[in-house]
Amino acid sequence: MNAPEHARRQEGTTSRFVTPAAVNVVLLIATLYFLLPVFWLLVASTKSRTDLVSSFGFWFANPQLIENLRALFAEQDHVFVQWMLNSVIYSGGGALLGTVLSATAGYALAVYAFRGRELVFGLILGSVLVPATALALPTFLLFAQLGLTNSYWSVLLPSIVSPFGVYLCRVYTTAAVPRELIEAARVDGAGELRIFLTIASRLISPALVTVFLFQFVGIWNNFYLPLIMLQDDRLYPVTLGLFSWQSQLSRDPQLLILIVVGSMVSVVPLIMTFLSLQRYWRAGLSAGSVRA
Amino acid sequence: MTTTETRTDRRTRHTSGTRHRRAALWFLLPFAVPFVAFYVLPVVYAFAQSLQRISRGGGSYGKATSVWAGLFQYDRALHDPDFVASLVRVAWFSLIQIPVMLLVALVLALLLDTQTARLRRFHRLAIFVPYAIPGVIAALMWAYLYDPRLSPLTQAMSTIGLDPDFLSPSHILWSIANVVTWTYAGYNMVVMYAALQAIPTELYEAAAVDGAGELRIALQIKVPLIKPALVLTAVFSIIGTLQLFTEPQVLRTITTSITSTYTPNMAAFNAASANDYSYAAALSLILAAVSFVFSFGLLRRTTRGEQA
Amino acid sequence: MSQTRGRSRTRTVGLAASALAVATLATACASAGSTDAGSATAASTASAPACAPSTGKVTLTFWNWGTGMDKVVNLWNSQNPNIQVDLKTVPSGNAGTYQNLFNGLKAGTAPDLAPVEYDTLSSFRLVDGLQDISGCAGVADAKSKFVPWTWQQVQMGGSGVYGVPQDIGPLALYYRKDIFDKNGLAAPTTWDEYYQDAKKLKAADPKSYISFFSQADPNWFTGLLWQNTPTLFSNDAGTWKVSIDTDQTRKVADYWQKMLDENLVAKDLQGFSEALNKAWDNGSVLTWISAPWGWSTIRDGAPSTSGKWAVAPIPQWDASAPSNGNWGGSTVAVLSGGKHPYEAAQFALWLNSDPQAVSMLIKETGIYPAATTDSTDPFLSAPVPFYGGQKIFDVFAQAATQVNPDFVWGPTMTDTYRFMSDGVAKTLAGSQTLSQTLTDTEKKTKDAITAQGITVAP
Fold first, then answer.
1. B136 vs A41: CB contact, 8 Å cut-off?
2. In the 8-state DSSP scheme, what is residue C388?
3. Using a CB-CB distance cutoff of 8 angstroms, which residues of chain C are in contact with residue A222?
4. Hey, is C44 helix, strand or coil?
5. Rounded to two decimals, what is the model's pTM?
6. pLDDT block averages, 10 residues each, chain C of length 458
7. Is ipTM beyond 0.90?
């Protein structure tokens, strides 16, 4: 975004429809739409159960956030903390491993020509089409035969596969890793692994951050897999834990407020992750745009 | 996914030897093993299941065995009015919801790409935030905002004389569409925005100097250049939409307008829940086939347009 | 707790839980598995399977949901050093519990004992998940200790015994006594009176409804049908007969259709929802036909209405021949794969029929027992403040004796409930009538039974 200022300014004035005011008003309305339900969640998590049902949803009434939070963390012997930790393990571990695998596979598909390459790539892309329900059940049965259900592995292992990650890494590698650079390194006598580790991985790091981020969110939000695999509530990720409360709601209506507060708290790490990776992501993007 | 790429590849092939082939294998293997285990095998397994049916010996609770049934389950599916209706429903849903969502995402991405937009970081984050919210929680939140007896939204709207019923049978599909749009528009916007940022500015500086407005630059230069990103988001949206499940399933808890076979995935899920696993497998695979036809149809059409 | 148990079907079928539904996936897995896991106990045979005590110390695993069970189990453990019960409280709600059980059966990690509702017994038997304990010492003699129709249900139309009855849900009428009084109305004794009252209450307050028709609770509607029909299913020599669409059931359906058509019952409320709690709270829904476990549902959902409710017997179709239906309740079943059926059966029998144990269950877990030994239980005979000090459980004790005893559950109740629930959804949307829903449910149920490889009469 290094367009000369005068050119930009000129655009602004010559445009009849895209006036600065219009641009910002539209953006503001959009942001309002996207944030309103989040705001509702924020407000709701400060309320008592009675106020949640009876007071106006978009504004505070007798805030008692601290009290709600205390109840949340105290419930069932601090089980919520365990759930959060589990989610971090599943999402962090799965995303990290998944990113590495996507990077190597995407790199291989971009850099090396071999027979059946497009077939392999097509197979990986096509796998995105299979509905989650169709995959989850047979996967469970396969795991049951290995005695691996109801363990951290049963959720972690299937999560490390990201067809979309492979796709992104391949496309990005093709765009961002100049072939001449690889050839030059080979001439210098560098091995293939070293070329990947020292040259390519750095060049495609923005893609890696992207893959990591979306994989992280994907695993965090995945619901089926842990639902089927896990029987021990101490292994639950936070989404499944909150669901288990939701499913007990009719027995114990007081859980409602814990679900609301828990939802709010569980969303925070995701937003934090996104925020903290923003810098890399943006830096990566501009780097990518120079190369492209 | 472009023609230039293939040309480069062809050149590489001549220079690459067995050493490179072996390297490729080692690079691919760590991904290939779990991929086969958690994607290919389960699909093969599901396919085998779909060609069977249950046969029971020795009375009602006799031993169940799976016997070869050929395409019996597929035939059953195509004659199941509820399932066919669910397919038509999500197809119709996709036809409306996806273009709307992508248009919203594109407009927002283009607006954020203008120099006049203020607080760009804030807006971008705000619009993306819903994507970070688990589908279950998002649907539960909207369930509250739709429920006529609890919703602050309907409360607020009734003060200005509006009385919307988000949950009536005729509106519910679009209420679901809203939840899906809300969740994924930001994600698509980010993908498009990333593509926009990758466009070298020189490409439209010239146009700007020639006096082209932002609108014209956007429509005539930017949009065509990010076509691959648009196709990508469209394909993923089609796949996601046809697999619609969580949102209607959660909203079912508060409305009678959604049946248990409202979407194909729900139909498959329920068949599975009723021990009718072969049927569930057949339904899932039909859905996968339909997704395949739709998304590849789109890819074919757009690539042909490129070549023309 | 019994409240949850009673309505767990709600969740499996539909709604609340199905947010993430589920009971189900598991079933799928179990079924897929059953293809290779055939077993000798599958076919129902005339002779009871052998059931010998194990030697040495035995530890049984028992999964249960809700709170309070630990105290009862502790009592057993202190009295039976050689048969220790390891209780695991499954916190994920009923839908999740069934799912876990089915998964566990498939993976060989299921517990020895678990709660299974009456209408779910058949789903478990279809995947060969239950042990027939009729050969275990003391089981045959226990029959007389339970409300007769519950024993009928655990025998499942044969001579085997597939669970020990724990609690029941005979229907009665919860009603807003204050508002009935204000309008000069007594509790209705017949359905016709109920209809007349509905009209009067509507006239008095056009915004109020006498009740609501919950699409999420097909097992509730089944309870209403049960009141006016001997059974919805029967099994003759391995061939099933489905009688969901009969003159008797249509009478019930047409009645509620009339209530819906005249806008006397709310169409947009689901059972166990916050919206319903609010409607109870602000007095826009005035009655609930429900089971004994429902007493705490209203108390917790609409605390501000304390003292305003009362319980009356369910309205009758024929006041001279009172009959009733049941909603919910469960058994404690001995699951397949367990190595100690004898010990498991002994514990299940003790838990659900020993006077001291049952009394503790009532007090600690809040169930309404299937055992007949406890009509004088101190908790059940006490006045309940929320219901204006009425001894409400007396009403249910009477109701339990009137439940039509020969009721049989179909082999694919998950499906049947789902078809009914979908049909009710269409009914509430105005696109078909309740009788059409019955016709439709019967037809689809027959197809579903056939899909399980079971013979069904046309």
1. no
2. T
3. none
4. coil
5. 0.81
6. 35 30 34 35 55 92 85 95 89 60 78 93 89 94 93 90 96 97 96 97 96 91 97 89 97 98 92 87 95 91 94 96 94 94 96 93 89 78 94 94 94 90 91 96 94 89
7. no
CB contact under 8 A, A150 and C109: yes
Contact B117, A19 (CB under 8 A): no
Dist. CA B133–CA A102, nearest whole Å: 24
Angle between helix axes A20-44 and A255-291 (nearest 10 degrees) is 150
CB-CB contact of A146 with A83 (8 Å): no
Rounded distance between C-alpha atoms, residue A56 and residue A49, angstroms: 13
Q: Are C186 and C315 in contact (CB under 8 A)?
A: no
Instruction: With beta carbons less than 8 A apart as the criterion, state whether C444 and C415 touch.
Output: yes
β-pairing, C211-212 vs C265-266, is parallel
Question: What does the alpha-carbon distance between residue C62 and residue C110 come to, in Å, rounded to a whole number?
Answer: 9
What's the residue count for chain A?
A: 292
- Per-residue pLDDT tens digits for C324-337: 999 989 999 999 98
> Least CA distance to A262: which residue of chain B?
B137
How many degrees, rounded to 5, is the angle at CA C441 between CA C440 and CA C442? 90
C-alpha A95/C-alpha C242 separation (Å) is 51
**What is the rounded CA–CA span in Å between residue A203 and residue A164?**
19
Q: Which helix (H) or strand (E) holds B275?
A: none
Distance, CA of C125 to CA of C114 (rounded, Å) = 14
Q: Which amino acid is at A1?
A: M
Cβ C270 vs Cβ C295: under 8 Å: no
Tell me the residues of chain B between 34 and 93 that have a Cβ less than 8 Å away from chain A: 34-35, 37-43, 45-46, 49
One-letter amino acid identity for C409?
A: W
DSSP 8-class letter at C314: P
User: Residue C211 in 3-state DSSP?
Assistant: strand
Query: Distance between CA C138 and CA C85 in Å, rounded?
Result: 19
